[in-house]
Amino acid sequence: MRKFGNRLLAQALLVSGMIGAGIVAGCSTAPIHNVETTRLSDSQPLEVREKQIDRAARLQNWEVETIGPGVMVATKRRGAHMAASTIRFSPQSYSITLRNSVELEQSKTRIHDLHHTWVQGLDSSIRQETAAGVSGPRPAE
């Protein structure tokens, strides 16, 4: 009887450990957050949009590299975590798509919640910069 009780206890601990691990892992990931094509309120030359998006990304501590007309790669790092996103833009719109990540528990459809926060900040910053319609340095406040 004691042997049966120990085996039952071991199975219960194993199951509860698996459930606990699933809860912890489930709480730290979310669906991958990409920003679909977002229309802007006005049209600006591509060079102006590039400067606005570059500035917006850098304000959110993203590293930015222009890889072609209307295409940038923005990379954000925090400790061992890294996410790189492709930003495609035109005079009237932009989109942000996850390119790759490191240490963000990425699967085909899910990624660490931190990525969602980073992309939300980047999207908000781009909206603010493009709404300002400013292509030069910002005035001192």
Overview features:
141 residues; 2 domains; five-stranded antiparallel β-sheet; single chain; TATA-Binding Protein; alpha+beta; two-stranded antiparallel sheet
Strand line-up of the largest beta sheet: 2-6-5-4-3
Please state the average pLDDT score: 84
Outline the low-pLDDT stretches. 12-27, 135-141
Structural class, from helix and strand content? Answer: alpha+beta
Major beta sheet, specifics? 5 strands, antiparallel
Share of residues in helices = 40-55%
The termini sit apart by: 77 Å
Beta-strand fraction estimate:
25-35%
CATH class of the largest domain: Alpha Beta
Query: How many individual domains?
Result: 2
Q: What's the SSE pattern?
A: HEEHEEEEEH
CATH architecture name of the largest domain: 2-Layer Sandwich
Give a description of the structure:
By secondary structure, the protein is of the alpha+beta class. The protein folds into two domains: 1-30; 32-132, TATA-Binding Protein, CATH 3.30.310. Helices cover 43% and strands 31% of the residues. The protein is built from three helices and seven strands; from the N terminus they run H-E-E-H-E-E-E-E-E-H. It has helices at 2-28, 46-59, 113-132; strands spanning 29-31, 35-39, 63-68, 71-78, 81-89, 93-102, 110-112. A five-stranded antiparallel sheet has the order 2-6-5-4-3, with helices on one face. A two-stranded antiparallel sheet has the order 1-7. The longest helix has 27 residues, at 2-28.
